[in-house]
Amino acid sequence: MADAAPISKPIHIMGAGLSGLAAAIVLAKAGKEVHVHDVRADSGARFDGDFQALENWSMDDDFVDQLTAWGLDATAFKATTFDTVDLIHPDDTITQARTEGVAYRIVERGTSDHTIDQGFKRMALEAGAQLHYKSRVKEEDCTIIACGPKGTSAVAYGEIFRTDHPNHIAFQLNDRLAPGSYSYLIIIDGVGLICTCLWRKQRKSERFLNETIAWYEAHYPNLNRQPFKRVGGKGDFTINRNYKQDGRYYVGESGGLQDFMWGFGMRMAVWSGVLAARDILGEGDYEVEVRKQLMPYVRTSVANRWLMNRVGDRTFKRMCKAWMKDQKKRGDGLIWIGKLFRPTLFKRLLYRVVSPFMLENDPKAHGRGVRRMPFRAALKRDVWEPSEAAQAVGQQWDAIRRGGGHVSFTNDKESDGAGQENTAISS
Ligand SMILES: Cc1cc2nc3c(=O)[nH]c(=O)nc-3n(C[C@H](O)[C@H](O)[C@H](O)COP(=O)(O)OP(=O)(O)OC[C@H]3O[C@@H](n4cnc5c(N)ncnc54)[C@H](O)[C@@H]3O)c2cc1C
Fold first, then answer.
1. Which residues are paired to 230 by β-bridges?
2. What's the CA-to-centroid distance between 316 and ligand 1, angstroms?
3. What is the separation of C-alpha 57 from the centre of its chain, rounded to a whole number of angstroms?
4. Statement: the pTM of the whole predicted model exceeds 0.85
5. Which ranges of 87-161 does DSSP label H, i.e. alpha helix?
6. Ligand 1 site-directed mutation target among 18, 137, 196, most atoms within 8 Å of CB
7. 223 Cβ partners below 8 Å, 6+ apart?
8. What residues are in contact with ligand 1 under a 6 Å CB criterion?
9. 191 touches 160 (CB < 8 A)
């Protein structure tokens, strides 16, 4: 009698976000028994209707082609493409960055059917993975750790509104409205988002969002904004000595695999989930592949972040001018920005020099040698009084909140599990 085929052990994944679900899809398709556990009630619940951008300039490969190559269905969720982006300089000049290809694909995060989270969830279920929501499991009992941020290195806050403005996207470099960072406006099919990112920790952080909204109102007079919720959350940026330890794979934000400069993380989340699954299937070594495929970009982004931490609006203005000049010369707005994200010898050396000073050890990281980029302290220039227009935006939101307007991120602490930091906006 022939030997019975070996029965493989079930694989438990902690976190049903993009990285955990990507891993689950690949594993379940290969016939593995996969259980994905999430503390929240559904995939995407962390984000509540937030728009996020899949940038398409940092690598030679188009993300959609990568998804297809990994056996993932890029049509399982709604993605709206943009070839033109308003680039807002710190002195309020507005120019356009353009490409003949795709600059951004905007996806929605959340629990609605068309979100990327639900698209991945459907793919996982179709592949045969078993999803367990409101399920709290121990890290030691899981093979893949995919539970998103633990600490806080930066935050982003946004307001979602109804609008009759046509689809539009704008990206603003402005150190006052978005300390160390950027703000953005995204409008898709009657729904808008104005968001500001804070790479320095602030008191009264709500004033940054109110002031940003007031700025967009003044410069985009046809928004007809009817706000109904505020969203946001934290980003965790870490470099890990080991991405695989004691038989466990740390993927996505749990492995710190994100762009340190501007916070793009979805692509690396999915990518790392796929790499972990492939290792389990005997198709490559996760530790080696993460270092080969992802870390050059992550290290470049650490060097970029170090540079960004040292500059303000004057350099942001120079960046905008250089970007536009390069676009004029080459006829494509993606080339300049793409170069900024690509690994170079200079960025590699800069990373080596600056990372010991930039990152702090996380003593709670199961001996994995996790070094986190701390949430930087506010600077003197971050202290300012809100304008009248921003105060009016704040009062408008207060009235909406009293009438039932939802704020998603105040619950970050409660729903993320132990060891999380609160990112609640403070007024
Ligand atoms: C406001 C904001 C805007 C952003 N904008 C962009 C953008 O425009 N473009 C971009 O590319 N990236 C963006 N990012 C980053 C991007 O969201 C993350 O990089 C990406 O979601 C990480 O995927 P993940 O799978 O690691 O985590 P997630 O997709 O967050 O999934 C983690 C899952 O784990 C669950 N979980 C948490 N704790 C536990 C636990 N203890 N046990 C079980 N489950 C748990 C959570 O509920 C969640 O479902 C943004 C982030 C924020 C906060």
1. 159, 407
2. 28
3. 15
4. yes
5. 116-127
6. 18
7. 161, 163, 165, 192, 216, 217
8. 14-20, 37-40, 43, 46, 50, 52-53, 146-148, 156, 232-235, 252-254, 258, 263-267, 269, 416-417
9. yes
* 316: number of Cβ within 10 Å: 21
- Measured in angstroms, how far is the CA atom of residue 322 from the centroid of ligand 1? 32
pLDDT at residue 6, rounded to an integer: 53
pLDDT digits (tens, 9 = 90+) for 267-313: 999 999 999 999 999 999 999 999 999 999 999 999 999 999 999 99
* DSSP-based three-state secondary structure for 170: strand
How sure is the predictor about 8, in pLDDT bands with cuts at 50, 70 and 90? confident
Do the Cβ atoms of 375 and 154 come closer than 8 Å? yes
Q: Helix count (H) and strand count (E) of the chain?
A: 12, 20
Angle value at C-alpha 164, between 159 and 167, nearest 5 degrees? 75
In tens, the pLDDT along 332-384 reads 999 999 999 999 999 999 999 999 999 999 888 777 889 999 999 999 999 99
CA-267 nearest atom, ligand 1: 11
Q: Round to whole Å and give the CA distance between 63 and 67.
A: 6
Nearest-atom number in ligand 1 for the CA of 197 is 1
Q: Which DSSP string do the residues of 382-403 spell out, in sequence order?
A: G--PPPHHHHHHHHHHHHHHHT
Tokens matching residue 182: 């950027």
